[in-house]
DNA sequence: CGAGCTATATATAACGT
DNA sequence: TACGTTATATATAGCTC
């Protein structure tokens, strides 16, 4: 998206990499916000630059996103590896929640 | 970006919302991957659709991103609220790491 | 440097099937 | 309803200041 087409590989020149990082970081944060609003989704985005600096965006709060992520992952594990008497009822509950 | 300009507000029609969600989700994941590669950044993206389904992308692993996020947040707290004898040495260390 | 400025490359909204 | 298509809106690469 620009004057010339680029190949997606690490930008060697440090200055160019910083400039591109700044521009694209702004772009992806905007996209994340739009997705959250347009589609009523909960979005969490964490980015560490190559210099180690943290940038973040969450449509709600990062804590909320990470907590929910942990719970969702636990559910995935249970469904993939059912090993308790909760299997049947849990599967039913999950399926009924899906669109 | 399309046949018509849209306003960024929640899409009321459920079907349209799902379609837009699917397209934009793909788009933002692509952007996240490109940013990670081009700029040598560590990226973590978590999205919960309005139906509650989880979608995720991490340039490394989500665990790595979340762990690093937690550590970065702790550092931010320490720098913002210095309340220990570690203040001076920690500030020095952090500053020397910045570009 | 960091902040704009276009020309182009991409993403995607509105339609077709 | 889920997939292609394509006209348009956006993002952004390379420059300029």
From TrEMBL, chains A, B:
Location in or out of the cell: Nucleus
One Pfam family this sequence matches: SRF-TF
CC annotations in GO: nucleus
Signal peptide positions (record): none
GO BP term, example: positive regulation of transcription by RNA polymerase II
GO MF: protein dimerization activity; RNA polymerase II transcription regulatory region sequence-specific DNA binding
Domain MADS-box: 1-61
Keywords: DNA-binding, Nucleus, Transcription, Transcription regulation
PANTHER family linked: SERUM RESPONSE FACTOR HOMOLOG
Protein name: MADS-box domain-containing protein
Protein's organism: Aegilops tauschii subsp. strangulata (Goatgrass)
């Amino acid at each position: 998206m620009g004057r010339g087409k680029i190949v997606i590989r690490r930008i060697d020149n440090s200055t160019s990499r910083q400039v591109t990082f700044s521009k694209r970081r702004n772009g992806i944060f905007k996209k994340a916000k739009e997705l959250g609003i347009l589609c009523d989704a909960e979005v969490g985005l964490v980015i560490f630059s190559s210099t180690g600096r943290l940038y973040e965006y969450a449509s709600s709060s990062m804590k909320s996103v990470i907590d929910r992520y942990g719970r969702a992952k636990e559910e995935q594990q249970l469904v993939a590896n059912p090993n308790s008497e909760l299997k049947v009822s849990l599967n039913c509950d999950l399926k009924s929640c899906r669109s």
